[in-house]
Amino acid sequence: MSKYESGVKQIPHPQGVVYATLSDLSNIERVKDRVPADKIQDLTFDRDTVSVSVPPVGAITLRIVERDEPKCIKFETENSPVPFNLWVQLLPVTEATCKMRVTVKADIPMFLKPMIGSKLQDGVDKIADALAMLPY
Fold first, then answer.
1. Long-range contacts made by residues 69-74, C-beta under 8 angstroms, separation at least 24?
2. How does residue 75 score in pLDDT terms, banded at 50, 70 and 90?
3. Cα–Cα distance, 5 to 75 (Å, whole number)
4. 64, pLDDT greater than 90
5. Angle at 89 between CA 69 and CA 45, to 5 degrees
6. Residue 135, φ and ψ in degrees, nearest 5
7. Residue 8 gets which letter from DSSP?
8. Rounded Cα distance, 70 and 85, in Å
9. At a CB cut-off of 8 Å and minimum separation 6, what does 85 contact?
10. pTM to 2 decimals?
C-alpha cells in the first residue's frame, strides 16, 4: 500500500460544523455548481456515497465506511480502477477554527507507481484544497 497525504489545511470554521458537513455527502448539493464540468462528470451522491466520472480515469465510487465524530471520516472505493481508502482528519485549533488533512492509501502495482504516484499526490492535494474552501 502506498500512502499519500495532503498538507495541513486551516479552516476558518469550528471542527463540529466541518465534520457535520463532510460526514453527510448529501451536502454536496450545496456546492455541486462549483465543480468544474471538464474535470468531473456524472456526479451523483447520497448521505453515504459519492460517484463521479473523472476523464481519463473513469467512474469512481466512494462510500463512507467509518465516522469518528468529530475527528475523522473514512472512505473506501466501491468502484475504482485502483482500489484505495481515503480519510479526512479534523483537529480543533480554537473554538472557531480547525485544521484538516486528507490521506489516501492505495494499492498501486509497482510498475504503475512511477506513472500515477505523482498524479495521486496532486489529486489528494486538490481534494484538501477544495474541502478547505467549502462554505461550511
1. 69/19, 69/23, 70/15, 70/16, 70/18, 70/19, 70/20, 71/15, 71/19, 73/19, 73/22, 73/23
2. very high
3. 15
4. yes
5. 75
6. -85, 85
7. P
8. 19
9. 74, 75, 76, 77, 104, 105, 106
10. 0.89
Q: How far apart are the first and last CA of the chain?
A: 33
Written as nine digits, the cell of 35 is: 465543480
Q: Is 113 helix (H, G, I), strand (E, B) or coil?
A: helix
Closest CA to 15 of 124, 85, 89: 89
43 DSSP assignment: E
Which long-range CB contacts under 8 A does 120-128 form with residues at least 24 apart? 120/2, 120/4, 121/4, 124/4, 124/5, 124/6, 125/6, 125/7, 127/6, 127/86, 127/102, 128/6, 128/7, 128/9, 128/100, 128/101, 128/102
pLDDT at 77: 94
